[in-house]
């Protein structure tokens, strides 16, 4: 118990009474063991490229899965299909906006190609979701969808009259 | 096959469930009220000495009723057959016989005696004995006259338990037949009395005497006496008007306001002068009461019949309100118990404005407005704004007069807003401490616009020229106006009630106008008044010096927001009132329809060089090849209607655009036909260009016809003679899948011909009136209100009347939301908007939009008046009545405080954890 307390104490305590020629202590919270071994990175470069291709091809790999979900959820408008379509639409769009962040993790020789593939894959997913929306009738592509905004015709002539009073 | 039927039945039941908007039991009389009328008084009997004081009346609307003499409330009412069958010729109450035989001589032990007896109609003539306590018919007998045409002018009188039937053959003879009143057995043969002097205009029946004017003398016959001796009575001067009988005095007639007796056994007081007379008893002595109106005061003078001495206890003069018109004393009675003071005498007057007025002790005790039994036009008027809202309104809009010069820069607008609000706060403060300005009359009466625009002034125009301002929520009569000497137009066209300025233009007051015909010279009459106060404005009554042929409201308003009235006179000249709005009439189109020849004429109004001219531009003859067709109905669209949806969505999600021609008018003509009995034609005519858009023929079909025309559809009901039932045909017009011109509509640019959808339905009721619901913006569904002969109003959703209801249940129809076609229209009890508040003799239904988009105000007129509101798409813009405000607020408060507490607890817990 006391040892634990001591270690806690040492962790948060600075000893200013140490000898002056001693090495300057590391800053607080610095862990020298966290240093990446440069040589290891170079060695695993191929692995990284492979991994990042996986990442870039992820959206494309999702397409068959999405198609299956779409087929299963049907065209009726109810809460679950709507939620699915919403997710299918929102996820790739979100992913597209965060392409920069994602690709930063996998910067390499084939970075541009990966980015393009990733982007296209997401685009394909969006298109798929839009197609689903269309087949569910959620897209305002028909004249009837704009009917509420059709203004009534202004009349040019006014009339009056009726059965003769005489 | 039965499976399909069941399925269809279930679908319809489900659809109906969704549309049903029936009232709950606790909502009865919450949104609606009914006022019950009896019609203009014909005969009355006050009986204050009966064990239950009573006032028995028969009216011109063929109603027999018992009124409470204290309040005028109806104890019971029997609405009899329509004219001519129900025309009440005689009301005889036992104990009120002309002679002294006080009771009907019914054999003892039988129930053939009578309390009250009525004679109605002429072919057959129905004689009915009534139990006056509960208003039931006890017995009835009828006679069928040999010559029903002659019998039209027949008169009846009762004497000594014998009922006499007199059939005059003008300028020839009288046929008198006597019947035992309670059994209908003839007492002998018909006696024929030769009387070559009798004419329809000059003769009357007074008790048992048949009296005629012949120059300066009265020739009379005593029809009861065995010897038919001709009695001649000389007069001082030749009578100006017609002679009238005095009820209760045998053989006495009123000649120019004076009593003249032709019966030698009946002496009268010659000195009396009055407009109307009645006879009764006071202090066990017979008295004659005469009443007349002099300069707004009603004078009742009474004399004893035997010595002509005045009865000072009963003499009275009272202020008689102008809106009652001219009174006629109908009957009176005095209580026997309280002798001497005369305070218990009640006089019942009928007036020219069709009111029933009861006068007692020099005061109007009660009055009934029976002209409301004949409402011919109605308008719902918005009420004025409350003062505070009024100032806000004027701030928003600027004054109406200087709206163009209204300074619109931000700083001044801000200053204005601050100052108005300061004024508002000050007035609120003054109001709280009780020093504020007194509220105006209309505000004191509670006539202030509510936030939903549901509270309105219902302005009703009645057939005899009386106008009412009635609160549509409470049914209170706020004001009455009586226009004497006005009449409806020829061709059964009624007077018009026109709104020239609505209440939307604060601080300007709304303005209404009545266009009628002068009953004396037939010229036009224009009366303008404020519909909130009922006071005449803009000069009030205006006598025009021409006959009106047709009229119209101008499309645009002049600078004071008044819409001018365009009048076409009999010589095809046009006039505009007010006159300064004349230039606005430029470019108006007018049409007139001649009923008999079924000929339409179109005119174009042009303003040039300070002069209005009217050019005849088209002609249409709907009379058929042998000009036999006559117009029986004309239906245009409601000019205030808004069409929100311009098309209809089909099953494949394409749009079928509606053919919304604002100038389209439907004409229905009818003619007898050799092979088909009767043929009915419907024409849809564009009255600007005069082109017939569509026409349709129904064979073996005849009136009664009701028609309603709105948006792009038309519904009309008629009687099918072949299968003897009432049917409703509906028509919808569509432009097609594309609009030819989506921005403007011009009838002169040859718009494309519409596609017509039509369908007929069977309705298991007799339709008296059809009307569509109307709302402010036209977003709410349209329902058709069907008024039936039994007095109920049925709210019929348009999708049940829809002509696109598919015959075969196709997928397209189902996706379109159309119900499969079933010819019979269902009339579920939930859709009767007046539940058990039957409107007797329902004649018309009027609708008006309220301030709420969902709600439509309805007034049904007939003998009774029924006012309610309907919400065709339910009240989607209003919280439900049973909305639980308390629960919602408790939940809200609990949730908010709960989340606050939880937040606090969570932060504390986090802090604790951090310190661990």
UniProtKB/TrEMBL annotation, chain A:
It holds the Pfam family EMC4. The keyword Transmembrane helix applies. It comes from the Eukaryota. The keyword Membrane applies. Keywords: Endoplasmic reticulum, Membrane, Transmembrane, Transmembrane helix. GO terms for cellular component: endoplasmic reticulum membrane. It is found in: Endoplasmic reticulum membrane. The chain crosses the membrane at residues 68-90. It is a multi-pass membrane protein. Belongs to the EMC4 family. Component of the ER membrane protein complex (EMC). PANTHER family: ER MEMBRANE PROTEIN COMPLEX SUBUNIT 4. This is ER membrane protein complex subunit 4.
Automatic annotation (TrEMBL), chain B:
It comes from the Eukaryota. Residues 22-151 form the EMC1 first beta-propeller domain. Keywords: Endoplasmic reticulum, Glycoprotein, Membrane, Signal, Transmembrane, Transmembrane helix. InterPro entries: Beta-prop_EMC1_1st, EMC1, EMC1_C, Quinoprotein_ADH-like_sf. GO terms for cellular component: EMC complex. Residues 710-915 form the ER membrane protein complex subunit 1 C-terminal domain. Residues 1-22 form the signal peptide. It is a single-pass type I membrane protein. The chain crosses the membrane at residues 885-906. It is found in: Endoplasmic reticulum membrane. GO terms for biological process: protein folding in endoplasmic reticulum. Pfam families: Beta-prop_EMC1_N (PF25293), EMC1_C (PF07774). Its main location: endoplasmic reticulum. Component of the ER membrane protein complex (EMC). Belongs to the EMC1 family. This is ER membrane protein complex subunit 1.
């Amino acid at each position: 118990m006391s040892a634990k307390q001591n270690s806690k104490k040492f962790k948060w305590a600075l000893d200013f009474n140490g000898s002056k020629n001693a090495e300057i202590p590391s800053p607080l919270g610095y862990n020298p063991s966290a240093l990446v071994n440069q040589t290891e990175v170079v060695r695993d470069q191929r692995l990284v490229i492979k991994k990042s291709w996986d990442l870039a091809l992820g959206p494309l790999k999702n397409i068959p899965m999405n198609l299956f979900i779409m087929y299963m959820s049907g065209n009726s408008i109810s809460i679950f299909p709507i939620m699915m379509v919403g997710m299918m639409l929102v996820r790739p769009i979100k992913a597209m906006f965060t392409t920069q962040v994602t690709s930063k993790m996998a910067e390499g020789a084939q970075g541009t190609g990966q980015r393009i593939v990733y982007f296209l894959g997401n685009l394909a997913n969006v298109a798929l979701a839009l197609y689903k929306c269309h087949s569910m009738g959620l897209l305002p592509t028909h004249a009837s969808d704009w009917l509420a905004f059709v203004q009534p015709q202004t009349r040019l002539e006014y009339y009056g009259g009726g059965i003769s009073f005489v | 096959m039965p499976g399909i039927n069941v399925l269809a039945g279930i679908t319809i039941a489900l659809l109906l469930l969704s549309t049903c908007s029936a009232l709950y039991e606790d909502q009865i009389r919450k949104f609606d009220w009914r006022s019950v009328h009896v019609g203009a008084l014909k005969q009355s009997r006050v009986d204050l000495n009966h064990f239950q004081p009573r006032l028995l009346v028969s009216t011109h609307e063929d109603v027999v009723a018992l009124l409470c003499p204290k309040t005028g409330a109806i104890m019971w009412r029997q609405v009899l057959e329509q004219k001519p069958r129900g025309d009440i010729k005689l009301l005889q109450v036992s104990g009120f016989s002309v002679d002294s035989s006080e009771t009907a001589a019914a054999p003892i032990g039988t129930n053939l005696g009578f309390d009250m007896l009525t004679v109605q109609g002429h072919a057959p003539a129905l004689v009915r004995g009534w139990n006056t306590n509960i208003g039931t018919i006890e017995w009835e007998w009828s006679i069928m006259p040999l010559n029903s045409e002659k019998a039209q002018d027949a008169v009846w009188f009762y004497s000594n338990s014998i009922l006499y039937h007199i059939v005059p053959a003008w300028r020839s003879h009288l046929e008198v037949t006597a019947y035992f009143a309670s059994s209908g057995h003839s007492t002998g043969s018909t006696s024929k009395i030769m009387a070559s002097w009798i004419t329809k205009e000059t003769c009357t029946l007074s008790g048992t005497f048949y009296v005629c004017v012949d120059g300066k003398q009265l020739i009379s016959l005593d029809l009861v006496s065995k010897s038919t001796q001709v009695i001649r009575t000389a007069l001082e001067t030749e009578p100006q008007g017609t002679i009238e009988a005095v009820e209760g005095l045998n053989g006495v007639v009123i000649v120019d306001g004076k009593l003249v007796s032709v019966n030698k056994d009946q002496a009268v007081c010659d000195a009396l002068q009055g407009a109307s007379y009645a006879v009764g008893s006071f202090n066990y002595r017979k008295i004659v009461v005469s009443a007349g109106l002099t300069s707004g005061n009603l004078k009742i003078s009474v004399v004893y019949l035997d010595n002509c001495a005045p009865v000072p206890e009963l003499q009275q003069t009272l202020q008689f309100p102008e809106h009652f018109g001219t009174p006629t004393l109908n009957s009176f009675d005095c209580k026997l118990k309280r002798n001497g003071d005369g305070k218990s005498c009640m006089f019942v007057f009928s007036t020219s404005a069709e009111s029933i007025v009861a006068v007692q002790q020099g005061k109007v005790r009660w009055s009934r407005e029976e002209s409301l039994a004949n409402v011919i036009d109605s308008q719902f008027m918005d009420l004025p704004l409350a003062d505070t809202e009024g100032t806000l309104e004027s701030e928003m809009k600027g004054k109406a007069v200087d709206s163009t010069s209204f300074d619109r820069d931000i700083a001044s607008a801000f200053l204005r807003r601050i100052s108005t609000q300061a004024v508002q706060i000050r007035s609120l403060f003054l109001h709280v401490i009780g020093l504020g300005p007194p509220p105006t009359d209309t505000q004191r009466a509670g006539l202030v616009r509510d936030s939903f625009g549901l509270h309105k002034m219902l302005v009703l125009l009645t057939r005899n020229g009386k106008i009412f301002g009635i609160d549509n929520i409470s049914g209170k009569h706020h004001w009455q106006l009586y226009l004497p000497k006005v009449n409806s137009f020829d061709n059964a066209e009624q007077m018009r009630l026109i709104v020239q300025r609505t209440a939307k233009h604060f601080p300007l007051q709304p303005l209404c106008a009545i266009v009628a015909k002068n009953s004396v010279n037939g010229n036009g009459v224009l009366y303008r008044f404020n519909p909130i106060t009922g006071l005449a404005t803009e000069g009030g009554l205006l006598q025009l010096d021409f006959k009106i042929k047709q009229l119209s409201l101008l499309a645009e308003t002049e600078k004071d927001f008044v819409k001018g009235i365009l009048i076409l006179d009999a010589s095809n000249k046009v006039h505009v009132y007010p006159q300064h709005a004349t230039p606005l009439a430029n470019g108006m189109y007018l049409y007139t329809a001649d009923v008999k020849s079924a000929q339409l004429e179109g005119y174009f109004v042009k303003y040039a060089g300070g002069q209005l001219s009217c050019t005849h531009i088209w002609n249409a003859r709907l009379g058929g090849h042998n000009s036999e067709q006559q117009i029986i109905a004309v239906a245009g669209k409601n000019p205030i209607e808004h069409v929100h949806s311009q098309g209809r969505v089909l099953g494949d999600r394409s749009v079928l655009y509606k053919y919304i021609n604002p100038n389209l008018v439907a004409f229905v003509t009818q003619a007898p036909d050799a092979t088909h009995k009767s043929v009915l034609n419907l024409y849809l005519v564009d009255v600007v260009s005069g082109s017939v858009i569509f026409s349709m023929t129904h064979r073996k079909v005849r009136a009664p016809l009701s028609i309603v025309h709105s948006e792009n559809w038309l519904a009309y009901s008629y009687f099918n003679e072949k299968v003897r039932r009432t049917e409703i045909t509906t028509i919808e017009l569509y432009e097609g899948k594309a609009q030819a011109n989506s921005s403007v509509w011009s009838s002169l640019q040859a718009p494309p011909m519409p596609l017509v959808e039509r369908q007929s339905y069977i309705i298991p009721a007799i339709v008296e009136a059809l009307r569509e619901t109307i709302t402010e913006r036209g977003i709410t569904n349209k329902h058709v209100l069907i008024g039936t002969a039994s007095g109920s109003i049925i709210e019929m959703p348009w999708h049940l009347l829809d002509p696109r209801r598919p015959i075969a249940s196709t997928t397209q129809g189902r996706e379109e939301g159309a119900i499969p076609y079933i010819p019979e229209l269902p009339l579920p009890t939930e859709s009767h908007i007046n539940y058990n508040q039957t409107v007797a003799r329902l004649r018309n239904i009027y609708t008006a939009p309220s301030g709420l988009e969902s709600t439509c105000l309805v007034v049904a007129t007939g003998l009774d008046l029924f006012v309610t509101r309907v919400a065709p798409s339910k009240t989607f813009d209003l919280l439900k009545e049973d909305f639980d405000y308390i629960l919602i607020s408790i939940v809200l408060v609990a949730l908010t405080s709960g989340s606050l507490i939880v937040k606090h607890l969570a932060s504390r817990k986090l802090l604790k954890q951090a310190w661990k």
